[in-house]
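Bench log. Compound arrived from synthesis this morning; before running ITC I wanted a structural hypothesis for how zinc ion sits in the protein. Inputs:
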Amino acid sequence: MDFLARQRRLAEALERLKLDALLVTHLVNVRYLCGFTGSNGALVATPRRMTLFTDGRYAEQANAETQHARVVITRGPLLPETARALQRLRAKSVGIEAEHMAAATRAELKRLLPKSPRLRDTGGVVEQLREIKEAGEIHKIRESVLAGARLFDTALEAIRPGVRETGVAAEMEYAARRLGAEGMAFETIVAAGRRSALPHGRASSAPIPARGFVVLDWGVKLSGYCSDQTRTVHVGTPDADTRSQYTAVREAQQAAIEAVRPGVMVSEVDRAARQLLQASGLGRYFTHSTGHGVGLEIHERPRIAQDRKEPLRAGMVITIEPGVYVGGRGGVRIEDMVCVTATGYEVLTPTHKELISL
Ligand code: ZN
Ligand code: ZN
């Protein structure tokens, strides 16, 4: 991981934003900038130097993990210490990560800094840097995707009529830990029968019915990096309508994947999937956006949506996940992770997409 390069890119961003310093309190961003993975930390970043503040429980870990940043171990809460550091810097304009800071914390910080510096709400300064993955990050994401993909076989063994959705999720999550995952990247979705029409049907205690779709959406966290994958299988023999619903989603997903290349607007990738579903009369059942970035967090920039005008850039890792949800009948979603390469795309998810009936 090239922390120095990340810090250099942050310095450029701070200069562009005319900020003397940025107070980084979102822990994933702290980790991204200096490597520290503890659960209590804040980073005071200026265009020239970084200082990590953490407490005594993390002294050893902070010294071992932190790269290219000074480590300060505080006795009490971090906020007063970071405020003192900001005052010592004589910074005039300090950015805070407004999206991640509670209103009460912001008020407290303001109280600790009565005159100067001026606090400025910023959003997504570090997140923007995280959009483009380094080669080392893509390597880690790939490993996370491969570990996650292995859980599909576990799910196929577990799914049968009468088994609870939570039972299937439990088997997958147990297998994930055995593969070395720190945990799941998000709450596992197992939605069977009519529940498959819920786009976010977290595994419930409902038993899997004798017939119908089962949507499985899961991912692991491995070495800090998330994976995210959806497959839809069918219990019992699917009829013609069921099959064509599945085929339509599969073709829409393929069309969106093939639209991926540097320079293409994310809205165009979304449109590629949406147009195909509209052509098969299913457009109104596709009720969410086509995908999102994935990395240290499960939902990152960019959002692959109709209303976004951002271009794709090489090094982005995104999901492509159209779905069709017909209330009372059932839903289908297929999701892969895709890396934007210099010339096009690479699908990272290895699992095949033929309709499986169990
Ligand atoms: Zn997913
Ligand atoms: Zn997703």
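What the model suggests: The chain is about 35% helix and 25% strand. The radius of gyration is 23 Å.
ITC booked for Thursday regardless.
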